[in-house]
Amino acid sequence: MAYINLLPWRDAARKERQKQYLTVLTATAMFSFLLVFLINMVYSARIDGQTQRNRFLENEIKVLDQRIAEIRNLNDTKKSLQQRMSLISQLQGSRNLGTQIMDEIASAVPAGVYLTQLEKKGTSLLLIGKSESNNRLSNMLREAEDSDLLSSPYLEFIEAGKDSVSLLSNFKMHLTVKGYEDVQSSNTPATGKPGNGGAK
To answer: Which residue ranges traverse the bilayer (predicted)?
Structure first.
């Protein structure tokens, strides 16, 4: 029987398989490297694009912050101007207040009632004087209640004069000025002696 040696053929086949394996392995490695490279390029491009968008947004935010600061300054200036205009309007509306109050008090004070002192603080008025009778003071209270400028008349006290010969009684009355805020009125008390209000 003839003897056939198969070792060289097997060695050749094994080397061919190794060569194919190395070829496939190399191709797979190259394909994997190319795939990773492409993915890296795609994500790098996305990251660069997002970075540019972030920078654009940051610049726009800075511009908006500047505009907001300008708007706030304009609002502060507007409020300041509105306050000044309101104060000017109030001062214009109340510049004749003192004269109006004196005219109104002169109209409300009947004959027989004499004022010796008049004090004004804010919207409050204090009247101190003398009266010939309680009825005349009652008439004065009614006139103050019907006034368009004066309100809330309050008679604090009325007492007979210390001189028994005198027929006049001392009184103290409080009034309030309508429609004017304290800021419109003088905060410094003013004292005057208008004298007799006179008969209507």
So the answer is: 21-43
